[in-house]
Each structure stands twice: as structure tokens, then as C-alpha cells.
Design brief:
Blueprint (H helix, E strand, L loop, with lengths): L1 H12 L1 H20 L19 H9 L3 H4 L8 H16 L1 H7 L3 H29 L10 H29 L4 H11 L2 H15 L3 H23 L1 E8 L2 E3 L2 E3 L3 E7 L6 H19 L17 H22 L2 H10 L2 E2 L7 H34 L4 H4 L4 H24 L30
Antiparallel strand pairs: 1-4, 1-5, 2-3
Helix pairs in contact: 2-8, 2-9, 5-6, 5-7, 6-7, 7-8, 8-9, 9-17, 11-17, 12-13, 13-15, 14-15
């Protein structure tokens, strides 16, 4: 406890770090306040129980509940995230985007600008769909045509406002702004979920021991998730010794940290999108409700969990293959005079790196699949679905990853000022260990 207070005191002594933390907290408070502002022309009392499920529930989680509240920030940062993913994929397939990735700071600025323009387009399309399908007609107080035009404009402006807040946090605050905004939206659900679980266990069932076991299990799951997020395979790299004048360059051994889970949460998001297809088909075609497709309407069913796990493993290999480029890593190593001991530079090096990535990706994908289906297992054990979401899946991975990234930045400030780090032994490391895993230059890191 003394170590904790000493660390907090050291953090407060660093003026720049203190100002960045305060700035970040103020921006996040502004975001949470504005997220409760309902669209103009909507009667908030007429919305009733507007909770979402399925893919819409996932969007509502990322938006911090704004999606179901019909807020002016209902679309949140998801259009920006979608645009960032599109630009990242274009950087793999389109030569002109690959060229911009290699242009350094100027190239990153161009890609960020393209991402912003693409965000405007995606937001406009999603705003039209949201107003048409998600706003109850009985809650609209003004002319429907005027409401449609006004709401489309307001929703688009709201997403751009959230994007601006995220970039301001990244520039003048601490941590990645977009990721922090998503994290705050997820954490906002925790107090109510915990209250419901405590009420259900202690007051209704009288199961205080069961509640304690649930908290212990949650702690163990969080520790397991941290191991997956932090796990790396260090590949040694030796740099040739060069003498320039009276100075020696190179001649040192470094490491390439290849992440066990280089794909992050993207495989879960892709897999969830596919798992919602059977449910959507049964809604449009009622005759299919008596077929085998109905099994995929229950997230706790065995068929759903096995299929979900298989899709996550497949998408983990796919996303890792398109984001981590062994050939580029080998070329960069060769240009800087580096080589892996015992491996020839060039094709042999890229093949070796690709083989290592393949070997570590399989256990990483299996562990990721286990984390993804843990909420369903928690529901099977009688945990409320709202609280079970924090036992795994996208929400837990985002929370763990964002917290680690933010703590890593805080610790770097402490170490630069010659203070002790956040831990007595070791150092906090975030998810940014693999440069190839985020090649778009975008600030949107999930």
C-alpha cells in the first residue's frame, strides 16, 4: 500500500504527466455527459426499454449505451474504427497505400487524412440506416422528413466530435484516445451489472459464498487475459559491427517481439458478425425457425460455442497473415545490417519468421477462442448476462489492452524522471510491441 501511495505521489509531482491525466479525465467526462443528450425531436420518455441484442448490442457496448439511448453520439467511434480497418487493409493490397506507409511521418499524415474522409462517408451511410431502423416512430415529436434530415446531420457531427475528442486525448492526454473512449463506455456498464449480480446472489438467493467465488474467478480470468495480451516470442537479431570515424555502430543483439495474439480483438469481432447471420435469417424467414439454424440463436448452446470458437481460430490466422508481414520485416532487418543468428538474410529469414508466427499463432488463437466463449459458460453457471460480459469476449480484451497501454505510458514518464516504475520488478508493456501489427498509421488501436 505504501508503494502505491508513493507511486501516486510521484505521478502527481511530474507537471506534464499531471496535466495530461487531468486533460484526459476532463475530455472523458465531457464525452460521457454529451452521450446522454438525446437526438433533437425525440421524446426520451417514449423510448421505453430500448435495449439491443446481437450485433446491435455489440455496437451499443462500444458506444457506451448511446446507441440504445438514441443519443447524438449513438454511432460513437465505430465509423472511425471501420475506416481505420479499411485503410489498414488497403495498405496491404494497394501499392499506393503501401508507398504512403513507407514515407514516414508525411505518409502517416496522408493516411490519417484519408481515414477521416472515409469516416465521414461511413458515418453518413450509417446515420441514414440508424434513423430509418432504430428510432421508434412513436418517439418522434416533429415532422418525420425534417427529423430524418436533422438527425442524419447531427449523428454525423456527433461521430466527428467523438473522433476529435479521441485525437485530442492522443495528442495532449495520456493513452490512445479512441481506445480510452471505447473503454469508458464499457466500464460505464460495470457498476449496474455488479449491483444486479450482488442483488441476485446476496439478497435474493443468499449466496454470499457464490458471489465471492465469482469475483475470484473474474480475477483469474483477467490474469489469464493479461498473459495472452502480453505473451511474446522474442526472436534474437544480431546487428553487424560498423566503424564510422572513431565511433562504433551496431554489434549488439536485440530482439523482435512477436506477439502471441497479434490480431487483438479483431477475430472476435469478425466471428461475431458472422454468427449473427443465422439469427437474422430466421427473423426475415420465419419458416427457418424450425430448422437447425435456431441453435445459433442461443449464445450458450454447444453448437454456437463450437462454431464461434472455430471462426475465431480461423480469423486469427487470417488477420495475422494480412497484418504481420515477414517479408517486410526481413527486408527492414537486412537494410539495417541485422540478421538472425544461424539464418541466412533474405528469403530464409522471412521463412523462419513466418514459421515462428505460425507456431505461436495457433495456441494464441485457441486461448483467444476460450476467452471469447467464457461469458457463455459464465451464464451457464448462473451468472447474470450483464455481469457475464466482463468474464471474457471483446469487452475484457479491450479493457485489459487499453489499461496496459495507458500504464505503459505513465511508467515511461516516471522512468524518464528517474522515479521507480509502477511495479517493483519488471516493466509494464503494452500491445505496441509488433510494428507490423498496426501499419496504417491510424490512431485507432483496439
Amino acid at each position: 500500500m505504501k508503494k502505491l501511495f508513493t507511486t501516486l505521489s510521484n505521478i502527481w509531482k511530474i507537471q506534464e504527466l499531471r496535466e495530461r491525466i487531468v486533460f484526459t479525465l476532463v475530455i472523458l467526462l465531457v464525452y460521457r455527459f454529451v452521450s446522454h443528450v438525446v437526438l433533437p425531436g425525440v421524446d426520451a420518455t417514449a423510448l421505453g426499454d430500448n435495449q439491443k441484442s446481437g450485433i446491435l448490442g455489440l455496437l451499443d457496448m462500444f458506444a457506451g449505451g448511446s446507441f440504445s439511448r438514441v443519443s447524438i453520439l449513438a454511432l460513437g467511434v465505430m465509423p472511425y474504427i471501420s475506416a481505420s480497418i479499411v485503410v489498414q487493409l488497403l495498405g496491404i493490397a494497394v501499392p499506393s497505400f503501401q508507398k504512403m506507409q513507407k514515407e514516414g511521418e508525411s505518409g502517416r499524415n496522408k493516411l490519417n487524412q484519408i481515414t477521416r474522409y472515409l469516416t465521414v462517408v461511413i458515418t453518413a451511410v450509417q446515420a441514414v440506416g440508424y434513423v430509418k431502423t432504430q428510432v421508434p416512430k412513436e418517439a418522434i415529436l416533429i415532422d418525420p422528413t425534417l427529423f430524418f434530415v436533422l438527425s442524419t446531420f447531427v449523428l454525423s457531427a456527433g461521430t466527428l466530435f467523438v473522433m476529435w475528442l479521441g485525437e485530442k486525448i492522443t495528442d495532449k492526454g495520456i493513452g490512445n484516445g479512441v481506445s480510452l473512449i471505447i473503454m469508458v463506455g464499457i466500464i460505464a456498464r460495470l457498476p449496474m451489472a455488479l449491483y444486479q449480480e450482488i442483488t441476485s446472489r446476496v439478497i435474493v438467493d443468499g449466496g454470499l459464498i457464490a458471489l465471492v467465488l465469482e469475483i475470484v474467478a473474474l480475477f483469474a480470468v483477467v490474469m489469464f487475459t493479461i498473459l495472452i495480451v502480453q505473451g511474446v516470442r522474442k526472436v534474437p537479431v544480431q546487428y553487424a559491427k560498423r566503424i564510422v570515424g572513431n565511433r562504433q555502430f551496431g554489434g549488439v543483439r536485440q530482439y523482435i517481439p512477436l506477439k502471441v495474439n497479434a490480431a487483438g480483438v479483431m477475430p472476435i469481432i469478425f466471428a461475431q458478425a458472422l454468427m449473427f447471420i443465422p439469427t437474422t435469417l430466421t427473423q426475415f424467414f420465419p419458416t427457418l425457425q424450425n430448422t437447425w439454424l435456431i441453435q445459433f440463436s442461443d449464445p450458450t448452446s454447444l453448437a454456437y460455442s463450437l462454431t464461434f470458437a472455430f471462426l475465431i481460430i480461423a480469423f486469427t490466422f487470417f488477420y495475422t497473415a494480412i497484418t504481420v508481414n515477414p517479408v517486410q520485416m526481413s527486408d527492414d532487418m537486412k537494410k539495417n545490417g541485422g540478421f538472425i543468428p544461424g539464418i541466412k538474410p533474405g528469403l530464409s529469414t522471412s521463412s523462419f519468421i513466418d514459421d515462428v508466427i505460425s507456431k505461436i499463432t495457433f495456441p494464441g488463437s485457441v486461448f483467444l477462442a476460450i476467452i471469447a466463449i467464457l461469458p457463455s459458460l459464465a451464464v451457464k453457471f448462473g451468472i447474470k448476462s450483464e455481469f457475464a460480459h466482463f468474464y471474457g469476449g471483446t469487452s475484457l480484451l479491450i479493457l485489459v489492452g487499453v489499461v496496459l497501454d495507458t500504464l505503459q505510458q505513465v511508467e515511461s514518464y516516471l522512468l524518464m524522471r528517474h522515479y521507480d516504475g509502477l511495479m517493483k520488478t519488471g516493466r509494464v508493456t503494452g500491445r505496441t510491441g509488433v510494428p507490423a501489427a498496426n501499419t496504417s498509421g491510424s490512431s485507432a488501436v483496439i
